[in-house]
Amino acid sequence: MSENRLFTDYENDFKCKAANIKLMLSYQNQSTNEIQDDAQIKLDLELRAAEAIVKALELEAQSEQLVSQRAALQKRTLACKSTLSTLFQQRSSVASSSAHPPRGMTASTSDIHKKTLYSATQRLESSNNRLAVAAQGIQEAQVCAAATLEELQRQRQVLLKSMTTLASAKSNVDKAGSNLKVMNQRANWFFWK
């Protein structure tokens, strides 16, 4: 069973993000209001990035060709969705327990989108690089296969020529055998007469 490398990369990215978010949530209650506001903004950015990764996981799982692998990938995606849902709930409970709402949330929404787009762009570039490497590998394999095919055709021609030569030699040997048989019969006829 081949492993979907891109899915695994996304899943590992998500696990790192989730661990980072859990750490941020644990420090959220210990910080001052000024630090807490900045931390909540960063936490929201991380949550949005994790959400984008889960969406990418869903797309990868849906694009899997083999049904058995698709089901396994969807199961892993559901586990990540569940973790993300738990993180959002923890974020909500931390936000409701704080004395005041985070300042600058409307201004940071564009930052969230920018960072999400930047993260998605980096993943796309990484995917494009992998595809380019794969395409180059396929091209090299095609060149190698063409050279191998050419060599096999050349060897086939040599074998056909050798087969023709052997058939000709066999025919000559058969003729020589027939001639020897006739000569042997004549010699026997002369000596026993």
From TrEMBL:
Protein origin, superkingdom: Eukaryota
UniProt-listed SUPFAM superfamilies: SNARE fusion complex
Pfam families linked: V-SNARE_C
Region annotation (Disordered) ranges: 92-112
Protein name as annotated: Vesicle transport v-SNARE N-terminal domain-containing protein
